[in-house]
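QA checklist item 7 of 12: single-chain prediction sanity check.
[x] sequence parsed
[x] length recorded as 194
[x] structure emitted
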Amino acid sequence: MNKENLLKQIADTAYNVGFGAKKHFATYDIVDKVPGIIAFSSMAVGIFGLVCEVLSEKLLSAFFLVLGIAGLYIERYNETKEEFMKKGEELTAIYYDLKVLYYKVKSSSSDLFEKEQYELNDISQRYYSNCLSKQILFSDWFAHYKFFWQNQIDWVDEQKHFKLWRDKLPLSFTVFIVILLLTASGYLICYCIT
């Protein structure tokens, strides 16, 4: 394999590993923090609802009831949340091993990269053996934020050339925002007409 193809293959693997690490961390963060946020906000709105009638309306109460149900869904992951953290740390270490390999190949003047190809295959096997498949809902969205906006990915981007709409924003998030905007526009139009 030539140098250019190997660098692309390392970058592809690094994207998968780095994003996978961030997805594991995203699941951990959601399971660890969101139930507390839900509990605090529900209690705060409930307390202020005693003195402010707007906060005790049925629609707002229904919204917080749905949040409470979401909290129960999230609690199912509580037993395994530490495993998500551990796997995220292991995947991050693999990601940095790929970064070292990338710069090693990039700075090499050799034409043969058999040893490096073997090292990449070994790293890929470590990646596959350290992934948990059952991630929590919305971990993809949070992982996109963590990978593209909080992480140093310049070396991966040298090969991948990430685009905002194609890569950095999840398609499901973009569709959700478009539907939300269309719904809000429709509601405003109907409200203004009547």
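[x] summary fact logged: The chain has a mean pLDDT of 92.
[ ] second reviewer sign-off
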